[in-house]
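Async update (no meeting this week)

Hi team, since we skipped the sync, here's where things stand on the single-chain job. The sequence we agreed to prioritize is pasted below, unchanged from the tracker. I ran it this morning and attached the output directly underneath so nobody has to dig for it. Comments welcome in thread, and please keep replies under the output.
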Amino acid sequence: MKIFYFFCFLVVTVITQPVFAGEIADRFSQLPIVKQASVSPDGRHMVGVFHLDGKVVVMTSPFASKQTTAVVSLRNPADRIESVYWANNERLLVTASIPKVANGSAFRQEVIYAVNIDGSKNVTIENTSPYKQDESPWIKQYTGVSIVNTLADDDEHIIVEAYDERDNNYALFKVNIYSSAFEKVESGANNRYGFVTNRAGQAVFSITQGKNDDFRTIHFKKPGTAEWVAIKQLKLAGDVLFKPVAIDGENLYVITNLNSDHSYVSRFDTKSGELSPPVLQEPGYDIANVILDSNEQLVGYVSNRDFSKHVYVAEQQKLRSDKIDAALKGRENYLVSLSQDLSKVLIYSTTANAPARYYTFDFSANKAGFWFSQYPHLEKVAMPIPQPIQFKARDGYQLSGYLTLPLGDAKAPLIVYPHGGPTARDYQEFDTNVQFFSQMGYAVLQVNFRGSDGLGTRHEVAGYRQWGRLMQDDVMDGVAYAATIPRVDAKKSCVVGASYGGYVALVAAFRDPSQFQCFVSVSGVTDLVSMLRQDVDGFAPRRILYEAKVGDFEKDAQMLNAVSPLQQIGKITKPVLLIHGLKDTQVHYSQSTKLYEQMRDKNLPVRYVELENGTHYFDEAEDRKLLFNEMESFLKQHLPL
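Output:
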């Protein structure tokens, strides 16, 4: 290993080495060694969520030091640490989720722990007020507590959202992080939800929605007043984007797409109800979010390019970002956490074909260094760069995506890897799944089909009610494009996907079986009617939204059955691998078991793997290892090089 310094930055140069058969699944299935890292407000310490020896541990270190100290971990491996925040310079807030089952469906209950950085004074944040003793038992059993605001100017309190039976809804509470004493500060009565608070913890945005309404109303409350003022009414489906993101006096900054295919930042006048011309806009790209400093001032934005790009407009942050980019050339660098005085910075740095790394920068001392790689075991592995592609669908519609060719010159079989969501998108960023397939010797195709987000309103809306139809055509047209690349052997191909991507794989299994040798569905949807019926579960607004985006499980049953793998089993002839976790909270595992049982009874080629504690995201080390090993074995058998 060679090291050299540039602008006081420690840069790691690695000599690549091959990964041998048998090691591939084990290496690429490993969870990131650290995530959710941040700097304390005073810049003296750092914290992160670490995966060590199969356990998830919150650990701290002095700023820029690799000497870590374990603070807290969870006993039950099925429980999950979601995130960690600084409550003050000495105390942390750890959010976790616990798997539960109600009425046959899995869900995760949110829990918050407050703990000192040395592991002492660990308190569970829960409401033990006397009136809670009279509440229904199901409230404690099935509702959780979530952080809304860590209150930067108050070292002893936070704002949380928790269920209040008196409101028949979630409400806001101010909570002491040492005693867990709760004080109610905002009611959720009359179906009020979606609270956003200012730096002082005052609720300034909220949403109301009737149980049978096809619209929702966004409200604003001027700090220091008691009245909620309706500022915008939006249809649940098909309306303009209107997302309040910051306060500017009596005006708001909002992300909108009014009169534009791509979203931008505008200023909204709460008195006149008028939107200003764009304040921040990037032609050809969606602005996904804004970046606020500790004083809640708008300092930048996030745009959806090939990488999720952070762009700073405030001078101090821009200068720091530019210096870091100059030091870490050829990488995408994100200022993920800054001390309150902006002198200490934690950087998340990534490329398309190498693991992300954390770096630290002390601007007061002009000193920087490498902290941790997320996947240190992959640092010496040579990996290809996913290449952006553009092609036209059969109807002339312009599409984009990525094609990753394995290293070397050999012709490669094709893995078609559609993303989940489907309201999501693929990026050029480092992806362990894509690189896993590449290391096995396969080319990997990712298509941002119609219905993907982050590529403009027109593109997303073009996918409405097109599950198994135009959205599926787009993927198949991507395969046709890949077949024109000399190194791609599209006659030998398999579709592998998770969630919606698993659905795409199974639709291909009955719609285009001659094109592929095999199909892999991880946590995939197989029956749209039952999925919609379960997801709606009597909630009219959600039914309205799903009808616009997918279809109605009663009125559109015939249309939905025509593109549901479970209803088209007779057309499936090639090998199928189904993998599903019983603790999946997004797609019920019965979506896989029913397909498996019917395929088995018809003697069709199918393998089903069920994980007792498996989640939708396979975020436990052993589950993830099993997932990758199953895929590797199945692909080697049915898609040999």
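Quick observations from my side:
The longest helix spans residues 621-638.
The CA atoms of residues 82 and 96 lie 5 Å apart.
Reply here if anything looks off.
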